[in-house]
Amino acid sequence: MVTVQISVTVNGRPTGPQTIPAGLAMIDFLHEYLGLTGTKFGCGIGVCHACVVIVDEPDGTSRTMRTCISGAAVFDGKRVRTVEGHAKEGRLSDVQQAFVDHFAFQCGYCTSGFINQATCLLEDLALNPVSRDVLEERIEASLGDHICRCTGYIRYYEAVRDLILADPQMTTR
Amino acid sequence: MWRWIVRLAALVLIAIAAYGLFAVLWGVSSVVDRPLSRDPATVAAGRYLAAAGDCASCHTAKGGEAFAGGRPLATPFGTIYSANITPDPKTGIADLNSAQFYQLMAYGADSPLDPLYPAMPYTSFHNITREDSDALFAYFMSVPAVEQPATPNEISFPFNIRPLMFGWNVLFASRRPFEENPAKDEVWNRGAYLVEGLGHCGECHTPRNVLGAMEADRILDGSIVGVFEAPDITATALADRGWNREDLALFFEAGASPQGTAFGDMFLAVKNSLRLLTHDDRLAIATYLMDVDGNAPSKGAAVVSAQGGNAHENPSGQALYLSNCSLCHGPDGQGVESTMPRLVGNATLAQPDGVNLIQVIAHGIDPQRMSLTQGYGPMPAFRDRLSAAQMADLANYVRSVFAVNGNDLSDLSEDDVIRILR
């Protein structure tokens, strides 16, 4: 079997170096090697986006990546945030709390993906605010690829929109 | 002094008059009118021929009414908008007769003043039989009329002087009617008629010269169209990439075959045209392209992944493949039917210059839905995840282990990747 050695920083904690099969999916690495099972395996073909995690780039920007279609080796040397990393000292993050308050999810399978994507969106808006009249399109462009089969998106959308509008730094008039 | 100016003016006038005479006599050479048929069988035959010619792809705008035109076509000479070919009296083709329709199809002009631009492929359609032209005309005269005025073309000078096209036509536009090749069978000849004519395959797959004309001595040799390459589809090149007649016919039916899936404009050509044809016609097209006997099956041997054999030669490429690609395309390149394209035996990998492979790796492919039950998922873009050197490494690996001609392909370098993506 072809193996590679990787070191990934997950939720601020360095891991590795570990030797893994080159074809090991990142989601299996999170589940089986790190015991982080909050990231969910959905479609397995990169369509539903349930499995996205946040990758923090050295230049200060962040983006999400699908872990079902990307090998763990792709994340070598990167800083990754998973759903387990959002709550601090027993307090949910703003995005997590907003999803609870809006009853945004039901079965919860897609939730970790939504949390990561929405967190990325909010962090980006804090640096690059958008005009309020394009906010709906902006949220759709950011979260539109995420599939949810329970609550029908409206509550996720409203939770994210209300969070953004509550912070005057994220939008312009 | 004045005498010279008068002489010069006279010369210019004579030249214009001569060109005008040439435009009238040659450019719009006369054709006998025949009565418009309303016979349902003729209209149905015309509808089928319209599918074979993929008329809708250009003459129906995105989200627009069928055949009402207005779809922009970008060319190096400017943007051309397709015509309304519904039988609307004001803005459509209601005032045409069957002779003018044939002149437009075969010569690209029914008047000396405003010939068509070859964005309308009369450069291929010239081989259409008069009978087929009349059936097409009968069909278009039967579709719902839509009043939609033409969008003016945005063509730069001097190309916006339309009658100049007659000069271009003399140089580049063949008017040869279709002639059967007696040395070949009926199936092959049917394929030739469709490929060279209504199918207008060469409009993408034949390279063009600086004046935008297909190069007559390089028919179907392959050409870059936009981002992707319309590959060489001459018989030898197809065979080298692992194609055979039966799989090619399957590709035209489903947009997918053991040699991979259609993407880019070819996906649309399959979806909007080829899959609507009869199996016999798809097989005829494949017979002609593969240049085989119309009756003999030509199915090639099954292709088996060479991954075990050659993998050790490129361990870094293999590691890139396993971590970036194998989770969808499979560790052995086997893919998943109707979900993820197979890479073993994939004909795109076998294209020698690697243009399409590198473009696909760099830019990904949007999900492609051929029908409710058949489609392929999205391919992510890797341009901001892999360096040019890594893409070359990865491409060389998949070419060597999955392409049927993997042992004959020369390696792509980092510079090749940079050049392709420039």
Number of domains of chain A: 2
Distance between the termini of chain A: 57 Å
Could you give me the name of the CATH homologous superfamily of the largest domain in chain A? Beta-grasp domain
Mean of pLDDT of chain A: 95
Largest sheet of chain A: 5 strands, mixed
Helix content of chain B: 40-55%
Describe the structure.
The complex is a heterodimer of chains A (173) and B (422). Chain A has 173 residues and is α/β, with parallel strands linked by helices. Chain A has helices at residues 26-33, 94-101, 111-127, 135-143, 154-166, and strands at residues 3-6, 9-10, 13-14, 18-21, 52-56, 62-66, 79-81, 130-131, 171-172. Chain A folds into two domains: 3-83, Beta-grasp domain (Ubiquitin-like (UB roll), Roll); 94-172, [2Fe-2S]-binding domain (DNA polymerase, domain 1). Chain A has five helices and nine strands. In chain A, strand 5 and strand 6 (62-66) form a beta hairpin. In chain A, helix 2 (94-101) packs across helix 5 (154-166) and helix 3 packs parallel to helix 5 (154-166). The radius of gyration of chain A is 16 Å and the shape is globular. With 422 residues, chain B is mainly alpha-helical. Helix content of chain B is 42%, strand content 6%. Classes of the chains: A alpha/beta (173), B mainly alpha (422). At the A-B interface, loops of A face helix 15 and helix 16 of B.
Features:
heterodimer, A: 173 residues, alpha/beta, Ubiquitin-like (UB roll), DNA polymerase, domain 1, five-stranded mixed sheet, two-stranded antiparallel sheet, 9 strands, 32% helix, B: 422 residues, mainly alpha, two-stranded antiparallel ribbon, 19 helices, 6% strand
